[in-house]
Amino acid sequence: MDDARHEPDVSIIIVNYNSGEFLKHCLDSIFLQIHVNYQVIVYDNASSDDSLSLVQNYFTDSFPLTLIQGDENLGFSRANNLAVQNANGRLLHFLNPDVVVNDNLNRDYQDIIQSGTEGIWVTSLVDQEGKLLKNKHIVPRLRNYINRLFQKNNVAYWNIGASVMMNRSVFEKIHGWNESTFMYSEDLELFYQAYLQKIPITYLDTRIVHAGKGSTQHRWSELERAEVIEESFYKFFQRHQATWEYYLIRPVMLFYILFNEPDQFLMHFTIFCKRIVKRTG
Q1: How many independent structural domains does the chain possess?
Q2: Is 19 in the same domain as 150?
Q3: 181, 201, 218 - which closes a domain
Q4: Do 140 and 18 share a structural domain?
Q5: CB within 8 Å of 118: residues ≥ 6 apart
Q6: Domain CATH number, residue 129
Q7: Which of 177, 180, 198, 234 has the greatest CB tally within 10 Å of its CB?
Q8: What's the pLDDT score for residue 85?
Q9: pLDDT score for 40
Q10: Distance CA 189, CA 186 (A)
Q11: Pairing state of beta strands 38-44 and 65-69?
Q12: Cα–Cα distance between 36 and 19 in angstroms, integer?
């Protein structure tokens, strides 16, 4: 391997858990499309499928790839934070295994590094048919909703963590990915911390394909997945000593689900009611 690879400009970090062929497609796209000086770190959360065997050809000196095999599933945040300990790049790019990149990222990497600015950068996401996915959501804090009405230049947004870049210095400022939840609210927490510390968020024009649910579809049913999301969402408010806001804001969000995803409403409403019963029981 070229010595220059030991000091890459970009560290692409992928957390894998039973991602199957998604991981192969992701790595194929990186090695075919990315030409800047980079490294790839795959942290495997003790996968039990064949995802690693499908990419064994890449685990050689011919590719700038490091594999870290965990003994247990530590979740998204903990795995990312451990992977960073092995990263040498000035720019960290956290990428889901169910993502396929294209060569437009080369320009983005170069522009970000040459600018010398600190921040977080988010790529646009499209589905496998090329339809743009919603990837910008308001942080669900009461004060933030008020700001949206009266101070539109002071609103916190969060983005799906499928393709997020940041300087190493920013990663350290926000203390990495929050490990208090197993998965799902970690991207909400990361962007909220960036907002609180006034770290700028830049939205890139580059669009990359995100299949979605690359590993969780093999692990949980829709109901189980919804329950995990709800628990993570609740813990977000707990961390900020605002559980009362959860019970105020969540019903409003349920009305949104009712009108926009009516087939999902009953499931989410039932989960919310169970939490109320658990709290008052």
Answers
A1: 2
A2: yes
A3: 218
A4: yes
A5: 167, 169, 170, 199, 200
A6: 3.90.550.10
A7: 177
A8: 96
A9: 96
A10: 5
A11: parallel
A12: 26
Q: Six-digit token pair at 223?
A: 């109901």
Which of 188, 218, 248 is at the close of a domain? Answer: 218
Largest CA distance in the chain: 63
Mean per-residue pLDDT of the chain? 91
Considering the domain architecture, whether residues 124 and 231 belong to the same structural domain is answered as no
* pLDDT digits 0-9 by tens, 106-148: 999 999 999 999 999 999 999 999 999 989 999 999 999 999 9
How confident is the model over 231-273, as pLDDT tens digits? 989 999 999 999 999 999 999 989 989 998 999 999 999 999 9
With pLDDT > 90 as the criterion, what percentage of the chain qualifies?
Answer: 78
Are 125 and 78 in the same domain? yes
**The tokens 């092995």 sit on which residue?**
86
| pTM of the model as a whole | 0.91
The rounded distance, in Å, linking the Cα atoms of 41 and 36 is 16
Encoded tokens for 168 = 């190493």
Q: Which domain holds residue 237?
A: 222-280
